[in-house]
Write a structure and sequence with these properties.
Helix content: 40-55%
Largest sheet: none
Oligomer: single chain
Strand content: under 5%
């Protein structure tokens, strides 16, 4: 099942291309999956610490 895209594709591609790199068609999907995993981990850490506010330290 595809996950909702949390990235702005054009800006992400521009950031990579500005370093002289090309971006494959599946690169954004892989990065998006990593972002989803980071968010899930931050949610778990926040909940485990008895908070309802995700902080920078949760990432």
């Amino acid at each position: 099942m595809a996950k909702e895209m949390l990235l702005v594709g054009s800006k992400t591609k521009d950031a990579l291309k500005s370093t002289g790199l090309n971006v494959s068609g599946d690169a954004l999907d892989a990065l998006n999956n990593n972002v989803h995993a980071l968010i899930k981990d931050a949610q778990k850490r926040c909940t485990a610490n008895g908070r309802k506010t995700v902080r920078a330290s949760d990432f």
